[in-house]
């Protein structure tokens, strides 16, 4: 089976949002992700300012299973309510990602954009 191609994330225009932005690209019709649950996802992440890819399970060719509680706050808030089979775009400000600049993570201080395909949930 050929892994799905990574989604194209168009370069951002305008200033980065101060709040989490949740946009459904495709609404799924399967089970709904719950707060604190486990999700099986494909995701593609870029920096808001540069549109540079920093991580992509699509590019690795393998989905990833995560307990939501272990993920960045933007995912903890942005994935619940999503249904299996859906694709959602999350624009995550630094406070809900890796914290303010100088926080010790290479993505600290950056607004991040993710496209997430929900493949399964428990």
Q: What features would you describe in this structure?
A:
The two termini are 24 Å apart. Strands 1, 2, 3, 4, 5 and 6 form a 6-stranded antiparallel β-sheet that branches. The longest helix has 6 residues, at 73-78. This protein is mainly β. The model has no long low-confidence stretch (mean pLDDT 95). The chain is globular and about 40 Å long. Helix content is 8%, strand content 33%. The protein has 2 helices and 6 strands; from the N terminus they run βββαβαββ. It has a single domain, classed as Chitinase A, domain 3. It catalyses: [protein]-peptidylproline (omega=180) = [protein]-peptidylproline (omega=0). This is Peptidyl-prolyl cis-trans isomerase. It comes from Rhodococcus daqingensis.
SSE arrangement:
Layout: E1 21-26, E2 38-47, E3 53-56, H1 57-60, E4 64-67, H2 73-78, E5 87-92, E6 112-121
Antiparallel strand pairs: 1-5, 2-3, 2-4, 2-6, 5-6
Which fold name fills CATH's third level, the topology?
Answer: Chitinase A, domain 3
The share of residues in extended strands comes to: 25-35%
> How many structural domains does the protein architecture include?
1
First CA to last CA: what distance?
A: 24 Å
Could you say which structural class the secondary elements and strand pairing correspond to?
Answer: mainly beta
Low-confidence stretches: none
Q: Which percent bin holds the helix content?
A: under 10%
What is the annotated CATH architecture?
Roll
How does the major sheet shape up?
A: 6 strands, antiparallel
Task: Write the H/E string, N to C.
Answer: EEEHEHEE
Overall geometry comes to: globular
The chain-level mean pLDDT equals: 95
CATH class, named: Alpha Beta
**Total count of strands:** 6
State Rg. 14 Å
């Amino acid at each position: 089976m050929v892994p799905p191609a990574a989604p194209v994330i168009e370069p951002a225009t305008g200033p980065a949002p101060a709040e989490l932005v949740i946009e459904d690209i495709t609404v799924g019709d399967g089970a709904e992700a719950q707060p604190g649950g486990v999700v099986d996802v494909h995701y593609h992440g870029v920096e808001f300012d540069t549109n540079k890819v920093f991580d992509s399970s699509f590019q690795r060719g393998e989905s990833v299973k995560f307990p939501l509680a272990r993920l960045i706050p933007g995912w903890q808030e942005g994935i619940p309510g999503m249904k299996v089979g859906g694709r959602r775009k999350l624009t995550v400000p630094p406070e809900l990602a890796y914290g303010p600049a100088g926080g010790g993570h290479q993505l600290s201080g950056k607004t991040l954009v993710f496209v997430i395909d929900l493949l399964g949930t428990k």
